[in-house]
Amino acid sequence: MSQRERALAALHRLRDFQHGQQETAHRLAQHDENAQLDALQRARSALQHGQEQAGSAGQGSSLDLGRAALVAQLMEGLLENVRDRRSAHEQARARTALAAAQHLAAQRQRDQVGDHLDQERARLQQASDLRDFDDRSDLLLARRLRGDAT
Predict the structure, then answer these.
(1) pLDDT tens string for the chain (150 positions)?
(2) Cβ contact 22:102 at 8 Å
(3) C-beta neighbour count of 111 within 10 angstroms
(4) Interatomic CA distance for residues 125 and 137, integer angstroms
(5) Angle at CA 8, nearest 5°, toward 7 and 11?
(6) Do residues 37 and 93 touch, judged by C-beta distance below 8 A?
């Protein structure tokens, strides 16, 4: 194994390791994005439930001002929670997109080094085959010159 081939093989192992790390980071980002989406859906559901409860409590009955303020405060809190969850989900989506791009870049780098390694191995094999052919040709020529023509 040539020094260049050893260096390319080591670089390929490094790129493969880095690809694995980026793949793991991408999967974690996807998991976080899904968790944030679930939290957003739960917050929306809680807001909808709160709106339904506030609407049914207000129909046909009069709310006193204190209770109306409490309901408004509760609804504002639920709405703020939805906004926060939406923001967290959008940030998680951006992190997932970045992780996907980094994963793809690491995969391309690994594949590129793998291609170089394959080319180097093919070049070395071709050089070895050529040396073997030259050695056999020299041996045949020497035999012919001696008259052994076998």
Answers:
(1) 789 899 999 999 999 999 999 999 999 999 999 999 999 999 999 999 988 887 665 555 555 666 777 778 888 999 999 999 999 999 999 999 999 999 999 999 999 999 999 999 999 999 998 988 888 888 888 888 888 755
(2) yes
(3) 14
(4) 18
(5) 85
(6) no
